[in-house]
Design goal:
single chain; 9 helices; binds pyridoxal-5'-phosphate
Length: 219
């Protein structure tokens, strides 16, 4: 485990922000970090995030980092700070629909599939292009602010491979930004977890999602 202040210092020097991944952790554990100044927390389950939102201070920024199902979009859209896990046009359109209802603009990241494992969610390049065509051509995702990309590297000790995957995400980020003239609001690269955040920072991460290293192992 690492102290919040030590980690924040390291991240500041590397140019990345910390999303403290609090999934499965208690409200008391979240408040311990809150009292030390941390405001951005990440959750992967909608119900758990809603419960925590309702009973914790309202200046917490809630980041949804797990796969989102269409029927749950309406529960998070009213308060979520950023959805990192947009992995289909269908889910993007559902977020649009619900955001319009509550008159909000929602920050989102598009989750790319960069790992070797089959199980990890995410878009391939063609699906990314389909979403960005839709976003930039039709004004049909007006209430979404697509701010960048998210990805999870393969769970391996092979640093060469992890680095290669992060680098491919960064390349895709540059491709998207330049081909679609997305400008300064397209600026976030959410990559890096407890095991690989140092590599992620070296490869240009702007947000790292760190859980176990801050809170201890999950059961
Ligand atoms: C759980 C999780 C993390 C944090 O993982 P740690 O290894 O505990 O740091 C980061 N990103 C996503 C998408 C997660 O589900």
């Amino acid at each position: 485990m690492i102290h919040l202040a030590t980690l924040q210092e390291e991240l500041k020097n590397g140019g990345a922000r910390l999303i403290a991944v609090s999934k499965t952790k208690s409200k008391e554990q979240i408040m311990e970090l809150y009292e030390q100044g941390q405001r951005a927390f990440g959750e992967n389950k909608v119900q758990e995030m809603v419960d925590k939102y309702e009973s914790l201070p309202k200046d917490i920024e809630w980041h949804l980092i797990g796969h989102l199902q269409t029927n749950k979009v309406k529960y998070v859209v009213p308060f979520v700070h950023c959805i990192h896990s947009v992995d289909s046009l269908k889910i993007a359109r559902e977020i649009q629909k619900e955001a319009q209802k509550v008159d909000r603009h929602v920050k989102v990241l598009l989750q790319m599939h960069i790992a070797e494992e089959e199980t990890k969610f995410g878009l391939d390049k063609k699906e990314l292009i389909d979403i960005l065509d839709y976003y930039t051509q039709g004004n049909l995702l007006n209430n979404l602010n697509i701010q960048g990309l998210m990805g999870m590297a393969t769970f391996t000790d092979n640093e060469v491979q992890i680095r290669k995957e992060f680098r491919s995400l960064k390349d895709t980020f540059i491709f998207a930004k330049e081909s679609y003239l997305l400008g300064n609001s397209f600026c976030e690269l959410s990559m890096g977890m407890s095991g690989d955040y140092k590599l992620a920072i070296q490869e240009g991460s702007t947000m790292v999602r760190i859980g176990s290293m801050l809170f201890g192992e999950r059961k």
